[in-house]
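Reposting from the mailing list since nobody answered there.

I have sequence plus structure tokens for a pair of proteins and want to know whether others read the tokens the same way I do. The first protein:
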Amino acid sequence: MGDASNLHPQLIDFLHRSPTPFHATREMSQRLLEAGFEQLDLSRRWKLQPYGRYFLTRNDSSLVAFTCADAAFTERGFRMVGAHTDSPCLRVKPNPELSQKGYFQLGVEVYGGALLNPWFDRDLSLAGRVSYRCKQGKLRSALLDLRDPIAFIPSLAIHLNREVNDKQSINPQTQLPPILSLCGEEKAPDFRAQLKQWLQGEHSDIDQVLDYELSFYDTQPPAVVGLKQEFIASARLDNLLSCFVGLSALLANSEKADQKAPCLLVCNDHEEVGSQSSSGAQGPLLASVLERILGERESLTICMENSLMISVDNAHGIHPNYADRHDGKHGPLLNAGPVIKLNSNQRYATNSESSSLFRHLCEQAEVPFQSFVVRSDMACGSTIGPITAAEIGTRTLDVGVPTFGMHSIRELAGADDLNYLHKALSLFMQQAELPFA
């Protein structure tokens, strides 16, 4: 995965295998294990070695991976990259069974700030984590990915809604439940019993399915598109593209015999809903890991002063059909390089020092770069950047590749930007010292 010459098919494979944060975390874990990283258990004591390579997960949906370099953590600081594993989607409710007009449907809840219109008329499958009691009485969890299209949310025909192209509002309670099958006059099937049936092939020890965290997703596979194959189209580019590039850069750097500084990748869950959870950026995960690595508070404080976090989350590319939604001087173009994201109200964590460092790195790596500031009369989104900066007190920078259709069921990014971002992050992780006077 560290080979930058083959990133496009690797990213497409990663996206295809990662329909939920649980699957993305499993995929990253498997690639770290294959690269020789050792998995740590948060519930046990650690014995870290100089030049050791380690990773850990929490809730099966967040991951921290790091390299130790030599023992001089405090003096050298960490080169850190942060991203998030979750994306807006439709989550299945706890008691979801619906039987309406002879159709079996499932009630859903909107997770995050999803664009809802694109969810109609798509071939949908189901994936996530299922918790169950096994026949021995223990509680266990398993990942489920049906892969096959099993559901559909049909649009209402234009003949019955003549104003749909002029105005469209969607009621998520009544208009989003997907159709799974016909059930006639019968009662809707027991969904937990159906889950048990789906899982029994690989998990024969299931006694009863107790609960689940399941999401619908579009089965259309990721693709490289465009007349010149210059774009990548996929679900969950925000923000699995950043997770993939961060991991790829970490793996590439960890393979170097002359690794100069400790590096760290954190991929948090729950960014799209505020990050306030045990596995989110506003939770204790990263700070507690750093405390365990460094041993005591003073060393952590000194180390963070010598560290830098690059928060990587997609940026809004200037849409040719909606160019007026951008500040005329800050409209990032696809395939024109990663975007430095700035906001004077701290919705992004970038300041002049961290921005200057990234500009310097991009020039050294011969990578183009751009800047984004939201229009002054529009609200600005945010990232894990400001939250992480507040939690651990280190210099932080927000960057990302420009993207169209952010939070849609299918997004578009530039194929060249994938390589540009990888080059910049790889060079960042190779810095023995940050070039601040």
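The second protein, same order (residues first, tokens after):
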Amino acid sequence: MARVRELAPRDEIERRYDQISRFEKSLADDGTTVIKCFLHISFQEQRRRLVKRLDRPDKHWKFSPSDIDDRALWPAFQEAYTIALERCSTSYAPWYVIPSDHKWYRNWAVGRLLLEHLRELDPRYPKPDFDVAQCRRRLLAQ
């Protein structure tokens, strides 16, 4: 916990979480569906992906030497993520934790989640506020 507290004072972190929750609540109150996915990979998978970035010249652009230093902070990051997920997951804007070591599964899970929400929303094209048949006749008469 020490490293997380070094990143920002606890009261500042709480203020930010409250601000995020208020913003998401306002979106939901306005009829917006908020879907938040946390794409979680394991420590081992992160290492494998970083090594791959170093081994393949076409992936060098995705690598930063600071990635190695940041791995030393893994426990602090995991703790920070846990707190953020707990504080900012609400009934109107829930977090969905998606296991992402396997990209095919990550893609399937996110796609399935979005499909379920779209089916619930049952989106429809807006109805025209004009007489379609009359406009068609007028257009064809020109």
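Reply #1 (J.P.):
I read it the same way you do. Helices lie at 2-7, 10-29, 43-55, 66-71, 74-88, 103-121, 132-141.
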